[in-house]
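Per reviewer request, we include the raw input and output of the structure prediction for the construct analysed in the revised manuscript.
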Amino acid sequence: MSALVDCDEAWQHPLEKFKNSYEYCVSACRALRYEPDARQGLGSLRALDYRVFAAPSPAGYPDVASAWAAPDAVMKRIDWSYALSRRLERSVDPRARAADIAGPVLSQTTRQAVAQAPSRAEGLALFLVSPEFQRR
């Protein structure tokens, strides 16, 4: 494991993969320190078109960006992110959380959009739908 962590090639292409809906939902909840109950978690995954135990094929869910970054899927992420952000806006500072989570990979454009958002909820939602957050 140490050899992999110390290998320069392992760090040369950060944020290349687009997160699938499951990864996106889990990472957003973790980033905002939100712990949904089982029903809320499953509802969130359904809202993002991820059916638990119902993959479209025996091979599982696709692992390509085109399966998760279609216009409809992105709009669902925006809607879901804004709803989650509205629920947590009083307890989470979007600028601080964006800096804590994305740190050095956070672009100036995203940093500025989050800082200039008209509300905390919109700032959080903008961070969650930013290119930096939607990729792993």
